Amino acid sequence: MTKSSGTILDGDSRPEGRGAGTEPRSVPAEHTRHILVVEDDPHLAAGVVENLRAEGYEVDFVGDGQRALEWLRGKSCGLVLLDVMLPQPELDGFTVCRTLRERGDNTPVLFLTARGDPADRVRGLEAGGDDYLAKPFHLRELLLRVRAILRRWDWYRSASAADGAVLRFGGNEVDFRAFRARSWNGLAQELTEKEAMILKVLAERPGEIVSREDLLERVWGYDVFPSTRTVDNFILRLRKRFERDPANPRHFLTVWGVGYRFMTEGES
After folding, report:
1. Residue 130, number of CB atoms within 10 A of its CB
2. Whose CA is closest to 217, among 207, 208, 230?
3. What are phi and psi of 38, to 5 degrees?
4. Domains of the chain
5. How confident is residue 155, by pLDDT bands cut at 50, 70 and 90?
6. Per-residue confidence band for 20, with pLDDT thresholds at 50, 70 and 90
7. Are residues 79 and 146 in contact, defined by beta-carbon separation less than 8 angstroms?
8. Can you tell me the distance from the alpha carbon of 145 to that of 133, in angstroms, rounded to the nearest whole number?
9. Is 133 helix (H, G, I), strand (E, B) or coil?
10. Which residues pair with 111 in a beta bridge?
């Protein structure tokens, strides 16, 4: 059989396809094509695994949150496809993702869920997820989102290598590879992956205006969040971490109606 870009994946059918707070931890480059699928519906999981393997990915599968956390404690992968409604209510997908982030594991997470309400999307992404796909979904959309997430992380790893690993501004020092920083007052900071990515995008274009839409596209993808206000909230968090006076910022400047400008020396 051949794969069909119009195939819809839900819990009832398999798609057509060929044969089936600790030390921050990022994904080794050699594991970026390895995907872990966490899904309690065996039919849906089989279809997802089969089609990902047909695209050339190495894929592992577990059926609950506990096994997912155990797998990820000992192994690395480039992406986790994580069902929200897992068998153990106390260990649903949101909790699994939050636990990973608390461990310092920054492996990207794509939520798969029957709950498509915008509030649930925001909850999932605030738990540390990278994207959110409602069931039933088209195979083509799943594969496009997987490629987009892996492409964003490839960009981040490349941009954070060697010469781009450390950013210094206004008495602050940011280590992009470790997702750690030390602010002007000597306080240690643990950055979320989204905070680090936003700062990286801004730092690549010092003194230039970067639109909210550009930040959304580079860090999340346009259709992930319902509003560009999400970017504004992350900028507020960066100001609280790195500005001496967050109410009167000198580094993270708002360009009203457009976006933001990052100044390494600070606006006088």
Report:
1. 27
2. 230
3. -115, 105
4. 8-159 (3.40.50.2300), 162-262 (1.10.10.10)
5. confident
6. very low
7. yes
8. 9
9. strand
10. 82, 132
- The residue type found at 187 is L
Supply the pTM of this predicted model.
Answer: 0.73
If one compares 72 and 30, the residue with the highest pLDDT of the two is: 72
Q: Give the three-class secondary structure for 203.
A: helix
Neighbours of 191 (CB within 10 A): 22
Contacts 24+ apart (CB under 8 A), 198-201: 198/231, 198/234, 198/235, 198/238, 199/167, 199/174, 199/238, 199/262, 200/156, 200/159, 200/160, 200/164, 200/176
Cβ proximity of 14 and 42 under 8 Å = no
Which residues touch 183 (CB under 8 Å, ≥6 apart)?
Answer: 171, 172, 189, 241, 242
Q: In what order do the strands lie in the sheet with 252-255?
A: 209-211, 259-262, 252-255
Q: pLDDT band at residue 16, thresholds of 50, 70 and 90?
A: very low
Higher pLDDT, 194 or 120: 194
Find the DSSP H helices in 75-138: 93-103, 118-126
The residue-averaged pLDDT of 53-62 equals 95
> What tens digit of pLDDT does each residue of 67-86 get?
999 999 999 999 999 999 99
Amino acid identity for residue 68 in this structure: A
